[in-house]
Each structure stands twice: as structure tokens, then as C-alpha cells.
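Q: C-alpha cells for this one, please.
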Amino acid sequence: MWYLRKIYFLCILVWTIVIVTGHSHSHSSGNEPPAYKYSSSANQKNVIQDKLPETDYDLYVRALGSTIFISIVPFFILFFIPIDGSVEKQPLLKILLSFASGGLLGDAFLHLIPHALTSHDDGHGHGHSHGHHEEGQHEPHDMTVGLGVLGGIITFLVVEKTVRLFSGGHGHSHNTDKKKDDNKSKKTNKPKKEEIKIAGYLNLAADFTHNFTDGLAIGASFIAGQSIGYITTITILLHEIPHEIGDFAILVQSGCSRRKAMMLQLLTAFGAISGTVISIYLKGSSDGLVSSLILPFTAGGFIYIATVSVIPELLEGSNNKFSQSVKEILALLAGVYMMVLIAQYE
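A: Here is the predicted structure, written as C-alpha cells:
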């Protein structure tokens, strides 16, 4: 189908940019761990090579300009994603949902958690060894990152439970609910107000915090110098394009129209802008907070959305054809592989 060819073309284009940019970046960045852009060493390593901006005004302009650029480019790409809430587009929508779940899980396990662990080890001077002290006592495990991930999962569960309690227990719309709502709307002859599933709001919250960490990274990188700032901008842009496509699919599946989903996606850009401003104001001194709390918490939110909200949607419905199932699994793997490439080359 023509719309599938468009999606495949976009994916191939993004992969090509990732590989080409990553190859050129790998020569300049060495063997840094995934998501190196957040670490304090990244803020100091290139200070000698790159002259710092003369004024804070120049620093804010460059960093905020890059942040806005990263937010706008994926927004325009969404115009070429031919999905809506209609029955005819459900097969394509489920393929994009599979891609979204793979991207969320890949982002959590291959990007956010590894970086949080790496930064945490660098800050505390020890690794994840299960060795012993010289006195024979067992070295205690550092559970900060793991608790942060669990905290994110539990928090999102509590939020969804709370919303369901106050909304009468309707978290996900099923066919019977739709029939009842249709009957009610026919009786009252009033236009039905657009309702959004809880998964849509949870995804927006997770996307906002994720964009906030990206903003912190952009601000910290421009503090280090212009070249590392622009390199960080490119890597985050490549990371955001597939992420925003997946988030767009989740919002549409949650009941948003195309227009509303795009507007909500654009609103999450304020998370990146606020992160950039705070990072510059604090002069990159927020690394510890990011690595120990925000990144693991966001990873937990991504895991919860992918496993509780998105994947169950793929298992529901009457369209269980073998060809459709294969496409959805391949799309999920494509989402994971996209994050593998980005984590490898950033």
C-alpha cells in the first residue's frame, strides 16, 4: 500500500541519517558510553577545544535555538504519517503502535537505564561488582537506579488507578463501552465530546520528562562548547524522530484526532525548553539529579506504557491475521533496532 511505502521510506531515511551521522561522530567522540551527552565529563572534556560563548545571552540563544529546532522537525514529519482513528487505518495504526512499543522499550533498556548506571558509577567511583571488602564483608549493592525505575512504574500505575477511580473505572474503551456511548449520544442528540484514554495522558507525561532530560543535555553540551553542542543536537534529533512518530501513534490510538495529537506533541516541547533553561542557569550542575532520579523514573514510565498500555492494544481486536501479526512484530523489532543504532553511535 502507498502509505506503508511512505512509512518504510521514512524509516530507511532515518536509519541512513543515524548511520552516516553516527560514523562521523564516532571519530570525534571516542568510546564514550551510551547517552554520554548527559555526563559531567562531557561538559568539561571539550572546554579547552571549544571557546565558551562570551555572554550568557549567546549561550541561551544557541541552546534554545537548537532545542526549538529539535522540537519542530519531528512535528512536520507527522504531517506525512497517514493515520487516524478510522477502521480502515487500524492495521497501519497497530504497526506504528508496535514500532512505538519497541522504541519505548529500547529507549528504556538501551539508552536511559545504561546511561543512568554509567553516570552513577562514575559519580560514586565503583561499579556493579559483587566482590567483597578486604575484611570479607559483602559490598552493598547500589539500588538507586533500580529504585528509580520501579518508582516510575509504580507512580504511573498509581496515577492510572487514581484516574480510573475518579472517572468511574473506564480506563480503556472496549466495544461494549462504545455501543453504550453511541446509544447515549443517539438518545440525547448531543455531539459526543472527544475522550482520551489514560494511556494518552501517561504517554504525554513520560514524553514531557524525557524531553526535559534532552533539554538538560542540550544546555550542558553548549556550556562545554559550540561543536559538542551541535553534535548533541543532531544525536538528540535522530533520537526524537522515531520517538515522536511512536508517541503520535499512541495518542491517535488513545482517541485523539490527528490535529489534536500533533498539538499535544508540540506542547511537550516545553519540557525540552524548560530543561535547557534550567541546565544553563545551573551551569550543568544538575547531572546527579538527572542520572539518579529523572532518567530511571522516565525509563520506568516508558516500560509501563509499552507493556501495560500499548502491547495489550496489539493483542485486542479482531484483526489477527498472520501477515498483520508478522508486520507488527517486525515493526516492534525495528523500533528496538532504531534505538540500538542511536545508542551505539551517539
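A few notes: Residues 14-31, 45-54, 124-134, 171-193 have pLDDT under 50 and may be disordered. DSSP finds twelve helices and no strands in the chain.
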